[in-house]
Structures are given as structure tokens and as C-alpha cells.
From TrEMBL:
Name the UniProt record assigns to this protein: Vancomycin resistance protein
Top-level division of the source organism's lineage: Bacteria
One Pfam entry name: VanW
InterPro entries reported for this sequence: Glycopeptide_resist_protein, Vancomycin_resist_VanW
Source organism (scientific name): Pseudochryseolinea flava
Length: 270
């Protein structure tokens, strides 16, 4: 066990050391961060996606899910309409800022050291997950992404491949991508009755699209413990040649500890 996990004081010091390092990178580094937002939408849509707001996650307190909606709306208001010009980098934590009670954030569910717990601003990773899914369907380059090393809850209406999200923790676990193209991009976020919705837009229509898919998904039992694995791949497809795939690439391999009993093992382990 790490020293920072044994005592709250050491954990506090560790977090702030990492935050100070990040501040130095933000304000003294050479990265050109996107910070301009525009309500006028760019001409073409690259990808749209929606994510259900309220989900029952194991035995967790549903009030944390309800509070999460408030947190999502505050965070989304800081990102909606952001313009990412050529050469610029999008930083989730830099755009959203530190979630605090003073800003109106409530206690939502967050995951830490393999445990689900209440934390101010909890749940805003759902926006990072959504944005990452949009970005994977574009030529934008992901330059920083973190994901949980464990799977804490059984799937509840999952529509995206396992391990395709992005976790954030202000500010040293950030989600960043860079626009290395000659195009300008824009992220738009809004809310419907049951979902948070988002889209990635561009100033000129691309000649190709992307398809993201899962391969070799499985649950494993090793030494009495459960694990989950898969691979996430991406196809680059020419739009105007009958959807011809011109490139396939492995995006990531996932291997995570599972903290529940997978359904296929319940009969023998229950």
C-alpha cells in the first residue's frame, strides 16, 4: 500500500504536489490550450452521442446519481461550444476548473482506490467519457487519457465497449486531445429529459469516417479473482467509396479487476 493511502495527510500532500506540477505545465509550458467558446455551431457534424443521466449502479445511493445531474450541468456549461483550432489542445480539467461547493457542485459518486464513494463534483467523468467517444470518431489525437484499473459495477444498459471511457480527477488526471489537423473542431453539449447529449463538429466535411468496435471481450477467473479484458479497434472508412475501410488500428487493450461476480459465474460462486 502506498504511503499516501495510509493516512489522509499524506494523501492531501500527494494530491497537491501533483496539482502544482500540473499548474506549472498549464501556465508555463508551450502547449496552446483551447479556451474560446462560440454559440454558433460549425457547419458539419462529425459524430453525435448521448448518455443516460440516471443509472442504478449496484447498491450505491441513488441520491448521488441525482446530484450528479447538477454537477454535469455545471461542468457542461464550461465546455459547451468550445472551439479547438489547428495546433490547439483541449484540456478537460483546465476548461471545467476545480469542482467545489462554492461553484454549486454537489456530492456525487466517484471512484477511488477501487471503492465507490461520495465526493463533491462526483460524476463529471461522464462528460469526459462522452467526449472521448466523440474524439475516437475523428482525426483528433488523444494526448492524455486515464481509465480505471477495476470494473466496480455490472453492466446496466451499456452501449459502448468496456474500457472506452476516460476518468478525470482535478487536475492531475486530465483528459486531453490535440488538433493536429488543418481543420477547426467544436464540442457542443446539451441535455434532454433523460440524457446528456453531445456532438463534435468541424468547419469542413471530412472525406472519411470512423467506426469503433470491440474485440475479444471476456471475463476471466484467476486465482479466485475476476478480471475483464477486451480490445478496442478503429476502422477508417472512405465515405464516398461504398464505405471502404482503408485503415484499421488498435486503440487500446483493457485488462481490469472486477469487483463483482460476473453473471456467468454466479451459479457456481453464489
Amino acid at each position: 500500500m502506498l504511503l499516501s493511502q495510509r493516512h489522509p495527510f499524506f494523501y492531501f500532500i500527494s494530491v497537491w504536489c501533483r496539482r502544482l506540477q500540473r499548474y506549472g505545465y498549464w501556465y508555463f509550458g508551450r502547449t496552446h490550450f483551447a479556451n474560446k467558446r462560440d454559440e454558433t455551431k460549425l457547419a458539419y457534424r462529425v459524430k453525435k452521442h448521448q448518455s443516460v443521466l440516471l443509472k442504478k449502479l449496484g447498491d450505491s445511493d441513488m441520491q448521488l446519481q441525482i446530484n450528479k445531474v447538477t454537477n454535469l450541468k455545471i461542468a457542461a456549461s464550461r465546455i459547451n461550444g468550445v472551439i479547438i483550432q489547428p495546433g490547439q489542445t483541449f484540456s478537460f480539467c483546465r476548461m471545467v476548473g476545480r469542482p467545489t461547493r462554492r461553484k454549486g457542485y454537489l456530492e456525487g459518486m466517484e471512484l477511488s482506490f477501487g471503492v465507490a464513494r461520495a465526493g463533491v463534483g462526483g460524476g463529471i467523468c461522464q462528460i469526459a467519457n462522452l467526449i472521448h467517444w466523440l474524439v475516437m470518431h475523428s482525426p483528433l489525437s488523444v494526448t492524455e487519457r486515464h481509465h480505471h484499473s477495476f470494473d466496480p459495477f455490472p453492466d446496466d444498459g451499456r452501449v459502448l465497449p468496456f474500457g472506452s471511457g476516460a476518468t478525470v480527477f482535478y487536475n492531475y488526471r486530465d483528459y486531453q486531445f490535440t488538433n493536429n489537423t488543418s481543420h477547426t473542431f467544436q464540442i457542443n453539449l446539451w441535455f434532454s429529459e433523460k440524457c446528456i447529449e453531445g456532438e463534435l463538429r468541424i468547419d469542413q466535411e471530412l472525406e472519411y469516417a470512423y467506426h469503433v468496435w470491440e474485440k475479444d471481450h471476456a471475463f476471466l477467473k484467476i486465482d479466485g479473482k475476476f478480471f475483464r479484458k477486451n480490445e478496442i479497434w478503429r476502422d477508417k472508412i472512405l465515405k464516398f467509396e461504398s464505405g471502404r475501410v482503408v485503415e484499421s488500428e488498435l486503440i487500446t487493450k483493457n485488462f481490469a479487476r472486477v469487483t463483482y461476480t460476473p453473471a456467468q459465474y454466479e451459479d457456481c460462486c453464489g
